Structure formats: C-alpha cells, structure tokens
Amino acid sequence: MGWLIDLLPLNYSDAVVAIGAALLGIAAGALGVFAVLRQRSLVGDALAHAALPGVCVAFLATGAKDATTLLVGAALAGLVGALLMVGIERTSRVRPDAAIGVVLSSFFSLGIVLLTHIASTNDANQAGLDTYLFGQAAGLLERDLDVMAVLAVVALAVVALAFRPLKTTLFDPAFAGAVGLPVRLLEIFMTMLLVVAVVIGLRTVGAILMVAMLVVPAVAARQLCNRLSLLIPLAALIGAAVGVAGALIAARAEVPTGPVIVLVGFAVVLATVLLAPGRGVLWRGRKLARDRRRALVEGVLVDLETTIHAGPPPTPRELALASGRPRRQVARALSALDRAGMLARDGERIHLTESGAAAAHAVLERRDLWSAWLEHGWKLRLPDAREPDPTDLRASLGDDCADELRRLALAGDGGGAAGDAGQGAR
Amino acid sequence: MSDDLTIILTAGLVATAAGLLGPFLVLRRVALMSDAVSHAVLPGIVAVYLLFETRAPLPVIVGAAVFAVVCVIGIDLLRSTRLVASDAAIALVFPALFALGVLGVTEFASGAHLDLDATIYGEIAFAPFDVWAFGSVEVARSIVLLGAVVLANATLVALLWKELKATTFDPEFSRTIGISPTLLSRLLLIAVAVTAVTAFESVGAILVVTMLIVPAAAAYLLCDRLLAMIAVTLGIGWLSAVLGHTVALRADASIAGSMGLVAACCFVLALVLSPKYGLLARALQRRRRRREVRAALAEAHAAR
Lengths: 426, 304
Description:
- Chain A: Keywords: Cell membrane, Membrane, Transmembrane, Transmembrane helix, Transport.
- Chain A: Pfam families: ABC-3.
- The complex is a heterodimer of chains A (426) and B (304).
- Chain A is mainly alpha-helical.
- Chain A contains 18 helices and 2 strands.
- Chain A has a two-stranded antiparallel sheet with strand order 1-2.
- In chain A, α2 (12-37) crosses α10 (207-224) and α3 (43-62) crosses α9 (183-205).
- The longest helix of chain A is centred in the last third of the chain and has 30 residues, at 281-310.
- The radius of gyration of chain A is 32 Å and the shape is elongated.
- The relative contact order of chain A is 0.09.
- Chain B is mainly α.
- Chain B has a two-stranded antiparallel sheet.
- In chain B, α1 packs across α11 and α11 (205-222) crosses α12 (226-251).
- The longest helix of chain B has 26 residues, at 226-251.
- Chain B has a domain at 3-205: ABC transporter involved in vitamin B12 uptake, BtuC (Orthogonal Bundle), CATH 1.10.3470.10.
- Chain B is built from 14 helices and 2 strands, in the order ααααααββαααααααα.
- At the A-B interface, α5, α10 and α12 of A face α2, α5, α11 and α13 of B.
C-alpha cells in the first residue's frame, strides 16, 4: 500500500485514513446491499453489540489483552450472533427486526454480566476491555490497510463470482432452493463476510460508523438504479467516495473522522432521496405539480371552447360558474393561456384565438380517442400487450391504430347504440 | 423501602412501561427503534451541557427527549417517503445523530467529564440512593419518574386502544375509516422516545432496549391476540426483573445484564416450547404429518 500513500497529495497519516475509509467503504458498500435488501440493515449494529461477550470470553480464556485474540473472539461471537439471528428468522414467526433486537440485547446483556464477572475476579488487567472494540479512524495503521484491502478484494470477488446464485437467493430463496442452489451455505458465507467486515470496521472506525457504512451506500445507490448488477458497483463507489470525502473534511477541520464520514453519508442519502430522478421526493413533487397544472389548463381551455360554442363569449366569472371550478384556479389557467397567446379579450369577455381553438380541438380529439380506446380498444390487434400512455394515445399506439379506433367509434355511434351518446359523441 | 425492593420495583416499572409499547413495536416491525433512540439522545445531552453547563437529571432528560423525538420523527419521515425501508431508515438516522453528539463532545465538551458511557448509561444499582422526599416519606426518584411514565403509557394505550390496534394490523383500512396511521405511529413513537429517555436515566440503556424488544418478541411467539400478548409481555418483563435481581445477587453480577439474560432465556424457552409456534411443537407436527402421509401411501399401495 506504500505506493498509493506516496501517490496521494496528502500527508502520511491523512493518506492512510483516506485509503482506509475508501477500502472499508468499498467492502461495506458491496456487502451492505445484501443486508439492506433483506431488511437486515441493522445487522451491523447487532454484530457490534454481539462482539462484547466474544471479547470477554477470549480474555477469560487466554488471560491476555492481545489484540488478535480479542479480535478473533469478537468475530466468533459476532458469527454466532449472526447465525442465531438468521436461524430465529428462518425457523419462527419472528421478523428480522425483532430477531436482530433479541440477539443484540441478549448478547450485550451477556457481555455486561461477563464484564462484571471479570472485574470481580481479575486484577487491574481488565481495564478498558469494554472500550476495546470502539476504535478511532485516526488510529489506523498502514498494516491495517492491507487487511482492509484483502477484505475489499475478497468481498468484490465473491460478489462478482457468485453473482447469479446470490441474486437468485436474494430475491427468491424458495426458487433458489428448488433449483438446487445451496441457499443456506450461501447465506452463511455472506453472513461470515459481513461479520468479518463489521469486526474489522469496529476496531478501526467504531461501531456506529460501521452501521452507517453498511447502509448509506446501498440506500443511496438504490435511489439511482433498479438493477442489482449496477447497484452493487454503484454502492461500492458511493461507499468509497463517502469515506474519502469524510476523511478529507475531517482532516481539514481537525475533528474525528468517524462522525464526519457518517454525516457526509447521511447528507448523500438525503440528497438522493430528495433529488433522485424519477423517484426522489422533490422530483415526484415537481412532476405532480406540473401534471396538475397541465390538467387544469387543458380543462379550462376545453370549458372555454364549449361555452363559446354554446353561447356568447363568457367573462372569467361566468366561465368559473359554468365549469364549477374555483374562480382562482380559472384565473390562473386563463393567465397561463393568455401568456401562450391563446386568448383574445374583448373587454371582460374572452375569445379563443386561432391557436387557442386549435389547441382546444387537439385536446378534445385526444379525449375522444381515449374514450374510443376504452370502449373499442379490445378490438384492436396490437403488436404488444402494453398499456398505452393515456396522455398521448396517438403517439403510443401509432397513427394506424388511432385511425382504426376513430373509425370504430364513429361506426359505433352511427349504429345508434343506446348507451354511448356520452363522452364519445361530444 | 429496602434497597432491593427499590431496585426490583424500578426494573418492574421499566418492564411495565416498555411492555405496554413493545408489542406494538414488534408488530409494526420497528423493534429496533429503542436501540436507535438510545444512541440518538447523545446530542441532546451534549447540547444541554453546552448551553446550561449542567448534568442535572431533569434538564438532561428534557434535552435527551427532544433529540429522541427528533430521531423517531426523522425515521418516520424517511419511512413515509416509501423510498427507504423502515430498518434502513433507522440505520440511517441514529448514526447521524450519534455522530453529531460525538462531534459535540470532542469539539466543545472534551474538558468536562462527559464521556460516552456516563451520559446515557445510568446504573440501576444506584437507583435506591437518589431519593425525593415527599413530606416525611422518601421515595426513590426513579420510581416516581417511571411511575409517571407507566401511567402516561397506560393512559395512551387505553384511550387509543382501538386506533392503535387498527393502524398496527391494517393501516390501509384504518385510513379509510378516518384514523390516520401516520398520526398514530408518531404518537406511539413519541411515547417510546419519552419512555426510553426517562428509563435510560435511571436504569441504563441496555435494560430499556432489552425490555422493549425481548419480552414482546417472546410473547409474539406465544399469543395470537393483542391483549394477551401485552399481558404476557408484562409477565415476562416482571419475571425478568425479579429473577434477574436474584441471579445478580447470587452471582455477584451486573443487575441490568442479569435481567436481560433472564429475558433472553424466556425468549429461548418460548422459541423452543411455544405450544403453537415453538420449534418442538412444529417438529412434532411435521413428524406426525410425515407419518400420516406414509400410512396413506401404504394404504393406497395395498389397495392396488
């Protein structure tokens, strides 16, 4: 990893932290997708708590506060906890969230009891055992980077090699079992990888950061794409970007790295949830407002056309009365039509200009076509079974089908069928 | 009042306050809300310390409660966009709030004694030493506070029983009959936040988290009716309080930890022995069914 550290235009310790955060982000991003899509987002939290009894047992067994021993103890306890979690979920009616909660609180309670036991039987040697697991990113060593690099490579390699079975198991475990995939083995294996990632993350960046690192990339990436094969690389990328950005900001502002990474990640998730194209809250809100506005303007245009057709040109007030719409809405739509050059005013009274009349006729024709589709659509021989776009039937069906529909509608009316004098005849 | 009785009563009150809300959390699949709250209160405690330079219990409870409510409402808002599943929403909001708190501690309060353990983890063993005097009667503060919370929760659940039940089991239906699932969910979560914060201060976070999840999850394995589930939850909660205290005394271990372990044992027993949903019952049922099928097959074979 030395060459990479030299390559970055940062001082040594900042470079180490940034690379570490990036590697952890890649691994956690790729593995987190599987946890998040199975509604086990908080598995990281549970594993972090489950590690405590593991550390205690390892200490009791060896009597030494050796880093590797304690880490192995934490990993083993985390694995047992994770398998119990999966087991409870699989064999009983308890849902994932409650299963995670039960494992989390049971293991942590056990850890506390063991801690008090150690405190009452051992000497001062045990001090700091409970905080042992909660690390600091600033304390990362170059040696840790190698471990994390291996983890990231293994995680990506496993996901890439076993992509199809993993995907099948993820979305349809019953089917995966039926076609002979080793569902349980895959699940155990993925859980093991997750445990290793969490334990490494715990030691280096802290428990709470690890929870966020698993979830943030997956959720942010999920807003941006719909395919698992894109989701995983995108999540790894977002994880790395969030890690590096957080580490750099923290180094610049001289504050702890972990919390800054979490806050950067949260900001990224908020941004994607609000702005994601096609899905984001603001995006949907803007589209809804636009659609409503268009529907209003078209409706008022048609009302105006029919009123003019029936009698003298109305005032805005008469138009509002005739169409049963609130006056303010009518005024808003009229000013929009005015701006588009579709209205001609004669004192208070309103006419349609030529372009306005054309637009009104276009809307009416679209409506007629839609009624015809609802009534006669089943008679058409369409090349595919898709539902057409109701806002623009002609474009989505093609001119031939649209003309055919019109013919059918006219024939239906000409035949004097009793019930269809409504929409279609206007 | 003797110290042991105070401790048991405190734990029992926590079990009652949590047991009234826990079943709803488990049924609504947001059991981990309590764990989220236990971490999310940190910025509130830090803010109170920064603004008022105090670690007195009441201001701390208020500050923590504000952020607990921010946490649950934030999670609920994120959930209601329908873009993020509830478990992911929980896992996003509480680390962010906790991170804010950690930054606050390291930036502004590092000189003070405000380390992460001491702030949110009260210790149930100290409950008897902190008393409020009412005239000549001295009552432990934790009992007064938790008693009030139990009363509030019981009132909430009793008054909104029908509404809570409807929104828990069928939110769409309750919306059509004019009960807002969003409003009920927020009310419930605010109650959880207030309960958790009050209880953290007197008994420590892990016991509260345990009492909110484990007894309710065990009861879920034993019952099919909501009222029965709440009753069983309360029973398991009190059993854990009493037995856990005894175990802790015998083994000279952490009281909160022992109570949590007893609750966990209850869950395991329910998981294995539940008459309807237990592993044992289901294994027996599977075996009986297999035997029946085999007998039927043999009969059909013989008849041919």
